[in-house]
Amino acid sequence: MIMESKSYSYILIFFLHIFLAHFLIHTTANIPAIIVFGDSSVDAGNNNHVPTIARSNFGPYGRDFAGGRPTGRFCNGRIATDFISEGVGLRPVVPAYLDPAYNMSDFSVGVTFASAGTGYDNATSDVLGVIPMWKELEYYKEYRSRLREHVGDFRALSTLVNALYVVSMGTNDFLENYYSTFSQRRMQYTVDEYEDFLIRLARNFVVEIHSLGAHKISLGGLPPMGCMPLERTQNIANGNECMETYNVVAESFNQKLEAMVGELNRDIPGLQLVFSNPYYVLRQIVDNPASYGFEVSERACCATGRFEMGFTCDERNPMTCRDANKYVFWDAFHPSEQTNRIVAQHLLNTSLHKFLIT
Description:
alpha/beta; Rossmann fold
């Protein structure tokens, strides 16, 4: 009888939480927090606390950030999620969960679990020894418990069901893993099969975070990764133009992601999943930089701008540009702050707009 009573109580609590989540998400119009998962595109410094070479906690990274300090963002200043946070009425930066300079008061309105160099595939995070996707999820579970302790059960539930969740990864799965010199994945899968493998992992990830409270989720697509200066450097035979074979893969993968988003929205009641595609706006910027106020798109600001990223982007190199706002790319792999600003505004005006309507 005691066991039956406990089971009944657990079931009652479970359905009460479902009811509260449904009630809260339909009665609260604002976004109380932004919660981020992903790679270097959205890492604000978690890798500073991981034994990896995939770090950017030194100059000239961060030279245009507040105070001119390197934070671990792979940029001269702020990244896209910082601008998105500001755009939805929250703080102008989203702090890294592992950064001891911040506490739960900060994390209660914005936090990123992202790790530069990671991907959907666990084998991708192994390449540089960074935080795998499953570990980001474990940090989120820990965060949920800490949030309840910090603000109480009801307010924590309200924050979790109304927060904007941003997921941005996938580029490393292809460039650092599948297309690497000694890739095991390329021996296991054709590129089409590998895309499908990643889609399954992305789907499982979305389903998992939804089961843990996420309702408003932005799933990011791949950029035109063949137009990164790092890839253009290797395309000598075609005059260092964009490597279109990689861009074709990015477009194909994005189409599959978008289709998966539609399927999940049909299959899961209450889910508000959107596909945030940076591909076309970034391609337009690369192809027509002057239209967006840029002067250079084929190489990056940092040093020669061809191959530098991480420790090869060094403040002692006199070749680093003076004004990063003139460059589409900051280093050979990552956009400049100004590009991040434009992409974030594009996403706020398109895929994320539904979350801003009151």
